[in-house]
Give the backbone structure.
Amino acid sequence: MADFSESSRVVTLFTRDFGKVAVVAKGAKRLKNPFEAALDLLTVCEVVFLRKSSSSLDILTEAHLRKRFRPRPGDLGSLYGGYYVAELLDALSEEYDAHPVLFDESTLALERLSTEFRADLTLVRFELVILREIGQLPAFDACVACGEPVGPTRQFTFKVSQGGLVCSECLIEEPPRHWISPESAAVLCGLAQESSTAWQQISVTTGQMQDLRLVLNSTLAHILGRRPKMLRYLPF
């Protein structure tokens, strides 16, 4: 959200039907404005906006609050997790590139961050879904060099430059400091699946979560050209 004039703001919305859109909310800065509290960060609302030409911003005409993100009381990790979801949506989506699955997954992630469900697992699931939706999901089921399926007979490491796991037989440089266990690779595959509920039954150990964060942190940094800003505030 940014100031546009003395009374108006430019607001970035992530919509289910149109993807990311930037709109002018006229009168939004007034004490009594037509949008009430619907334009707060991380609110879910129904909106009506007018499409303009490619050189002009769209005009927001209506916004009605449907749901507000409520982090767990006293839990900054829950709050920062919500901000992290918003950061990734903004950084990794394109204007007018609709992703209904991603919209639904983001609202579900915010709901889970409001409950006692594991925040770290919620965010890993969201990261994998957004990578899948934008076509940047790494390969976790086999070596990207030789096609050898992930299993206990070989060691695998993650190579962000090659877009997935590489087995020990295909490494042409010094062995890496960190190997990805077959169990962690299976967890990544499970958490990235299209089913919106089956992944919630997956159990993740502390060691596996370290593997997951190694893969996701390096992947996101590679795509963005930087580490996501909110990562430093998350409790993992």
